[in-house]
Amino acid sequence: MGMKVAEVCGDNRYTARPHHKARLRITLFMVAIPLLLAFSLLLGPSGIGLPDLQNPSGSAIVSLRFSRMLMGLMTGAALAASGVVFQALLRNPLAEPYVLGVSGGAGLGATLTILAGSGVFFSLGLPVVAFVSAVLTLMVVYGIARQGSSGHPSVYSLILSGVIVSSICSSIIMFLVSTASVEGMHNVIWWMLGSLQPVSSDQQLLSAALIVIGLGGIMLLSPRLNALALGREMAHYQGLNADRVLVGGLLFATLLAATAVSLSGMIGFVGLIVPHVMRAIFGPDHRKLVPLAALAGGTFLVLCDAVARTIIAPIEIPVGVVTALAGGPFFLIILQRRMKQAWI
Amino acid sequence: MDLMSMAHDALSFRDVSAGYKQHKVLDRVSFRVREGEFISLIGPNGCGKSTLLKTAAALIKPISGQVELFGHDVQQVKPAERALLLGVVPQKIDSPMAFTVSQIVMNGRISSTGFWGNFSSSDHDLVERSMIYTDVLGLRDRYFTELSGGEQQRVALAMVLAQDPKIIMLDESISHLDINHRQEVLQILLKLNREERMTILLVSHDLTLSASISDRLLLMDSGTLVASGTPAEVLQSALLSRVYGCDLHVQQDPYTGYLQVSGAFESLSRRKRLGRSVHVIAGGGSGIELYRRLLIEGYEVTTGVLNRLDSDAEAARALNIPAVLEQPFSPVGAEAIASALRMIERADAVVLTRVPFGSGNLVNLELAREALKLGKTVLLADGIADRDYTEGRAAFHLAARLTEAGALGWQTIQDLTVKLQQL
């Protein structure tokens, strides 16, 4: 023990207690989330309000809205949390599931499954195939990036090879779509546009389990993500097994992104922007950032979906369109005002 | 595992070689650091000091040999236990995100806190104590990235102090500090060293400072340890001048008794007034370093005969050195020889570099013979036998005759500049 621990100040007032402003912000956020979710249940093609619950069709509508809400929560939480992890591990503000080719790989696996199969294998196989192909893609990306560097690839070569592999994946998807049957083409395109149409309950359950595993893993890693943000070398000096955190984090984040893709297709924007906005508001401490970003990502996607099914009802627009169109300006304003806190 | 046993050295290197696949940075380095010692690691840029630190911290695995921390192979020690033994303050840390100073310092407890990273009150006490020691408590809510380089260094030191290790290694970490905070940080390190028996290994470029605070100095040169001992033992003018490749003087301060190392600027400006000139016979890139040094030392330099495509010709043009050039792939003509001789007549000395000799440039050795006849001093780089590619070892025999006729030899550039000064 180098320094004798004396009472520096009895209550650790300097480092132990968060600022009252920070606490207020978290409290407001935790109050807003359930209100926003409840509000989304009220939105439907017929305007704001709950349908008659006594009526069987009314209760069916509410239960449909509820399961879409669950779909949105799961997908959004998974995308946002994986974005947080990719940005922390790569120490790069542009990192997200799409940049490393993870979404592209998952998308390719899912496309093959959709075109090939149906039935039980289809619904349960989709998340598994998506995850396996995402991990394989990540390994290819890592392997390419590693060429020429001794040991560990640089962030830039990782991102560069990620972008390359990602565009190869989407080219293959387009090729598969263009040569597919009309029905297959229709299925894949609808899935790619992104939608929170509830999948089978088996698949929902499996996906929920995978997302719980992914989020739990990331939560366990979150204190270590703070140290890794100062770089591999510094994290190593501080007694972390930096490579283990890096590989573990990448795997959990990949699991989340792949599960989200298999649930709801290619929904962009959430994995990139929600982490930034949450960091701008609540700071970069990953112990708080991971759960807050997951909640915010889920709620944001649920709201976007409510807008998507309402705004030009009875026509429903793909939720992926709404995320960027509606969320973009809103998040831009927040980021502009708190840019310094987000990422310097 | 009892890591605390006192029978062991705090840190020991046994025949350690380390580096990269193609390029070995540490070459069979051995030394021992006892617990509670204050050591400075000195040596010129690129001599392997940072690699040595990284190897000690198990960031780099040695190619051969063994590094021990308190008697345990550092490669076998668990990361969290290693962090309790050894902390490293790097040259610079950068945080890509807007972490506050206190969040950064709290990272120092990362491997000692539980799986969820929960802080006990003694963790907080350590963090706050470290911040008070390093005078960064007032900065606690500032963003780390907004601080000046020196403030960031103090925060980095606070973070490593919060880690509470038994050895602290600082990689040139105090060079960015202003004089006030440098004194303060050194005071902290000395206090921890004296009162808590903390072992300190400081990589430093300030030889005078290192001499005044260290128990022992380790001097490195191109990947090897060339000296280890008390400041008085290591800081020898001749040794330092050889390792750093420049003229250095060591004096004892009459008031404090500390050793002071200083360069020789005065003699440099005196030479410049003399306007001495040197003609360099080079080729194949062997002249570049010599041109640079001679110009810095204040000599007027001329060079030739060089092949027009030679890298030395390129360097001479870049450094504005008058040069006699000849077309590539052709024998040196009478005109070129005549202008080279005119240059030699004006020069005080003629230096031959480690240029390899073949039939094409053998004429340059003839030029050196002419220079001797003109009464000039001729300095011939040693080891000509190894770079003689002429038929019948013509260059070697010619060089032998030059030496008989009074040409001097030289080994290192340092050696050469000393000989030139004595003219």
List the helices and strands and how they pair.
The complex is a heterodimer of chains A (344) and B (423).
Chain A: H1 20-42, E1 43-44, E2 47-48, H2 56-90, H3 102-116, H4 119-146, H5 155-179, H6 182-193, H7 201-228, H8 232-237, H9 242-264, H10 270-282, H11 286-310, H12 319-337, H13 339-342
Antiparallel strand pairs in A: 1-2
Helix pairs in contact in A: 1-11, 2-7, 2-9, 2-10, 2-11, 3-4, 3-5, 3-6, 3-9, 4-5, 4-7, 4-9, 7-9, 7-11, 10-11, 10-12, 11-12
Chain B: E1 11-19, E2 24-33, E3 38-42, H1 49-56, E4 64-69, E5 72-73, H2 79-85, E6 86-89, H3 101-106, H4 121-133, H5 149-163, E7 167-171, H6 179-195, E8 199-203, H7 207-213, E9 216-221, E10 224-229, H8 231-234, H9 237-244, E11 248-252, E12 259-263, H10 265-274, E13 277-281, H11 288-296, E14 300-307, H12 311-318, E15 323-326, H13 334-346, E16 349-352, H14 363-373, E17 377-381, H15 394-404, E18 408-410, H16 413-421
Parallel strand pairs in B: 3-8, 3-9, 6-7, 7-8, 13-14, 13-16, 14-15, 16-17, 17-18
Antiparallel strand pairs in B: 1-2, 1-4, 4-5, 9-10, 11-12
Question: Would you kindly provide a written description of the structure presented here, covering whatever features stand out?
Answer:
The complex is a heterodimer of chains A (344) and B (423). Chain A contains 13 helices and two strands, in the order αββαααααααααααα. Chain A has 344 residues and is an all-alpha fold. Chain A has one domain: ABC transporter involved in vitamin B12 uptake, BtuC (Orthogonal Bundle), CATH 1.10.3470. A two-stranded antiparallel sheet of chain A has the order 1-2. Chain B contains 16 helices and 18 strands. In chain B, the strands form four sheets. Chain B has a six-stranded mixed beta sheet with strand order 6-7-8-3-9-10, with helices on both faces. In chain B, strands 15-14-13-16-17-18 form a six-stranded parallel beta sheet, sandwiched between helices. A four-stranded antiparallel beta sheet of chain B has the order 2-1-4-5, with helices on one face. In chain B, strand 4 and strand 5 (72-73) form a beta hairpin. The N and C termini of chain B lie far apart (65 Å). In chain B, 46% of the residues are buried. At the A-B interface, helix 7, helix 8 and helix 13 of A face helix 2, strand 6, helix 3, helix 4 and helix 5 of B.
